[in-house]
Amino acid sequence: MSDSGNEKANWWQRLSGGLRRTSSSLSGALSDLVTKRKLDAAMIEELEEALIRADLGVAVASRIAAAVADGRYDKDVSPDDVKTIFAAEIEKVLTGVAKPLVIDTAKKPFVILVIGVNGSGKTTTIGKLASSLHAEGRKVMLAAGDTFRAAAIEQLKIWGGRIGASVIAREPGSDAAGLVFDAIAAAKNDKADVLLIDTAGRLQNRAELMSELEKVVRVIGKAEPGAPHAVLLVLDATVGQNALSQVEIFEKTAGVTGLVMTKLDGTARGGILVAIAEKFRLPVHFIGVGEGVEDLEPFTARDFARAVAGLEE
């Protein structure tokens, strides 16, 4: 097997392992249902309820239930039959949103703004992203726009040090918009290919924090017309349904262009990604199933669908 084959196998193991809590809760419910009796309307209703409880959203749950029911009433169905249908339906929803993050080399620097609530994994995501962009041979610069937290500034400096990337930072408590303005000037001056901007984690229901984010976005546009070129919203899978309102509000405030979902290994609510894909149709660029650099990977619909369904690769 080639290195890339090995890498793919390792990632599949981490992905299916990371999604085990989600797939176990789902396949447990599915198996209980289908081993008891022949398929009937009551079983379909229970199946739909189990899928809704797994945070897949009502629309997706009813489509999967309908697909399972199709032509199978009064027949025995095996848990594997149901899982296969389930994976196929999930894949249909996700195929349209599984898109890579494309860096337009004509835009120099290509400005990526990274946003999200506190604790969603923004700074770690920036570090991992910077690491992979650096590995592709790009010159990366980081801006420590989370000026509220000294720990976030330090964390970014550590990531920058690992890959030899410049980090633009100020004292904790400094004005984030001013820092971002300076960072864009520095990135131009330094001929950086990509500028990754961290932001303070903010609760989506705090109006003053959201207006500060709007200001940061405006300042970026003034410093570099057309920027930010990508606005990545980092979502923590463990918050479940709350992630839907995060997408809605951040989308209005900062014009989200793509999603990164982290901490899928810490929850049984991995189905929330499917509900978000169905509702917002925003590109999903990366998913994370752990803390290591190698645990953030480009999102692929088929792998995720099969792992959530508890199927083999």
Q: Could you report the average pLDDT, rounded to the nearest whole number?
A: 90
The stretches of 5 or more residues where confidence is low (pLDDT under 50) are none
Percent strand: 5-15%
Order of helices and strands: HHHHHEHEHEHEHEHEHEEH
Q: Bin the helical content.
A: 40-55%
CATH superfamily of the largest domain: P-loop containing nucleotide triphosphate hydrolases
The CATH architecture of the largest domain can be named as 3-Layer(aba) Sandwich
**Main sheet: strands, sense, barrel:** 8 strands, mixed
N- and C-termini, Cα separation: 16 Å
Strand arrangement in the largest pleated sheet = 3-2-4-1-5-6-7-8
Shape: elongated
Strand elements, count:
8
Structural class: alpha/beta
CATH top level of the largest domain? Alpha Beta
Radius of gyration from the CA trace? 21 Å
User: What is the total number of structural domains?
Assistant: 2
Please tally the helical runs, counting DSSP H or I stretches of 4 or more residues. Answer: 12
* CATH level 3 topology of the largest domain: Rossmann fold
